């Protein structure tokens, strides 16, 4: 555990560093499962997860919604000078991260400091905060998991950034990405994310989809080439989401993104950042998306949150569904974990969660959910017959004609002959309920 780092003011007064106390603890501000030093499947929980706090939800998001004004009024959001205000916010962020024992953080450029419409002035502001962040990182040991540029909030991006029909807007997006990459590199950021909220369309009536996607690829190549030229060794992540704010987003889901990366020669530098609630919006489960990415060798990072069964949008609630996360951790462990990334809490406390402590409860719950799920998944893999049952379903491909088929040695005529020779197949149970019970038994 590192030290708590505060600035001149302590923003989260009366809250000490969150410690592991074990499952018997009644302390709501203690971990019951997340013991960062506990070794599971050969690695500490700290190293498995590389948990990160998300700047935008925790220190910028203010509880405002389309129907009402902000409900979260922050003490670090008071000063009139944008750089001084941003420094207070960063002091608060590092106080929270270190009290929460989060080893990483993630940001968009505009989360760190407010941007106007003057590119050079924006670069100056971001640079000032990079200098401040360097000191904070050095003092605390907290690291930057990934940086990104917000290419969706400013009105100029209403028709997209890299996929905007107007080249002039695309160039503004590029200027912003350049500065965000410079900041990420200066802060030893381990990865860089592209989430294309407006890289898509509202209607095909005014959209040349093929051309826009080609521009998207060119843009990503330019960003990648610039970063590599300037010493960035980390991984680029694409974060899929099917819709919202665009009606249709080009990075719809993992399978779509993998196809795109392969088509445009980006597959060596890019992997995927999977968000739980985006998976469900795409009509998949989180587990499905993890498996698709893992099978392609592209399981890079995770944005942790959860959706709401009643809603068709990104509610970004904190993870607390043990069943869902345990199933996900089975895939995570079998894939050998994440490639370069970590588990970033892209989640926000509710509009009516207005105590300073609520942000801590939220992260305690999320970190404990992942820890408990990973421990459970490891037990399932070690002690139950879960893997054996799955393997046995495919036993007919382990020898004889089945094996030859996998080796590409069997023709369609051979298959017909085999079917005739062996008659009608016996029914074989998939044992779904049995397997579901295993999950609950080990939780
Ligand atoms: C929005 C996305 C966003 C990305 C970063 O739905 O999840 O927060 O993670 O731009
Ligand atoms: Ni996200
Ligand atoms: Ni999201």
UniProtKB/TrEMBL annotation:
Enzyme class: isomerase
Family that this chain belongs to: Belongs to the xylose isomerase family.
Binding site for Mg(2+) 2: 275, 278, 314, 316
Cofactor binding comment, as recorded: Binds 2 magnesium ions per subunit.
List of catalytic residues: 108, 111
Amino-acid positions noted as binding Mg(2+) 1 in the UniProt annotation, renumbered to this chain: 239, 275, 303, 346
Record note on quaternary structure: Homotetramer.
Compartment(s): Cytoplasm
The protein's name: Xylose isomerase
Gene: xylA
Entry coiled-coil feature ranges: none
Cofactor field: Mg(2+)
GO molecular function, one term: xylose isomerase activity
PANTHER family assigned to the protein according to its UniProt record, in alphabetical order: PTHR48408, XYLOSE ISOMERASE
The UniProt record lists the keyword Isomerase: yes
EC number of this enzyme: 5.3.1.5
Keywords: Carbohydrate metabolism, Cytoplasm, Isomerase, Magnesium, Metal-binding, Xylose metabolism
NCBIfam families: PRK05474.1, xylose_isom_A
HAMAP family reported for this sequence: Xylose_isom_A
Reactions catalysed, as given in the entry: alpha-D-xylose = alpha-D-xylulofuranose
């Amino acid at each position: 555990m590192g030290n708590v780092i505060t600035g001149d003011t302590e923003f989260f007064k009366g809250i000490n560093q969150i410690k592991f106390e074990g499952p018997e603890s009644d302390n709501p501000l203690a971990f019951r499962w997340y013991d960062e030093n506990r070794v599971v499947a050969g690695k500490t929980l700290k190293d498995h997860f590389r948990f990160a706090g998300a700047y935008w939800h925790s220190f910028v998001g203010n509880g405002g919604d389309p129907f009402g004004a902000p409900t979260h009024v922050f003490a670090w959001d008071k000063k009139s000078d944008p750089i001084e205000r941003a420094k207070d916010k960063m002091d608060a962020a590092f106080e929270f991260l270190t009290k929460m024992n989060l080893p990483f953080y993630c940001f968009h450029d505009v989360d760190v400091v407010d941007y106007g419409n003057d590119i050079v002035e924006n670069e100056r502001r971001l640079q000032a905060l990079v200098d401040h962040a360097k000191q904070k990182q050095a003092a605390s040991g907290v690291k930057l998991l990934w940086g990104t540029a917000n290419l969706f909030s400013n009105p100029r991006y209403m028709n997209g950034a890299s996929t905007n029909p107007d080249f002039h807007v695309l160039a503004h997006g590029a200027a912003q990405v350049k500065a965000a990459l410079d900041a990420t590199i200066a802060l030893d950021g381990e990865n860089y994310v592209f989430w294309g909220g407006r890289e898509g369309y509202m209607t095909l009536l005014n959209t040349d989809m093929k051309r826009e996607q080609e521009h998207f690829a060119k843009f990503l190549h330019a960003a990648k080439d610039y970063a590599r030229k300037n010493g960035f060794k980390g991984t680029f992540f694409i974060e899929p989401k099917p819709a919202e704010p665009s009606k249709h987003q080009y990075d719809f889901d993992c399978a779509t993104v993998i196809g795109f990366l392969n088509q445009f020669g980006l597959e060596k530098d890019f992997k995927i950042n999977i968000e739980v609630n985006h998976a469900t919006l795409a009509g998949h489960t989180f587990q499905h998306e993890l498996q698709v990415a893992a099978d392609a060798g592209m399981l890079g990072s995770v944005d942790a949150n959860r959706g709401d069964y009643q809603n068709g949008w990104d509610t970004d609630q904190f993870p607390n569904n043990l069943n869902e996360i345990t199933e996900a951790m089975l895939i995570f462990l079998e894939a050998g974990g994440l490639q370069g990334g970590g588990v970033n809490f892209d989640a926000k406390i509710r509009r009516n969660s207005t105590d300073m402590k609520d942000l801590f409860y939220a992260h305690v719950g999320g970190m404990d959910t992942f820890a408990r799920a990973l421990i459970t998944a490891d037990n399932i893999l070690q002690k139950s017959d879960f893997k054996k049952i799955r393997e046995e379903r495919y036993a007919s491909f382990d020898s004889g004609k089945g094996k030859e088929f996998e080796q590409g040695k069997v023709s369609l005529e051979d298959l017909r002959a085999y079917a005739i020779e062996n008659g009608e197949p016996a029914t074989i149970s998939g044992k779904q309920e049995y397997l579901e019970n295993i999950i609950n038994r080990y939780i």
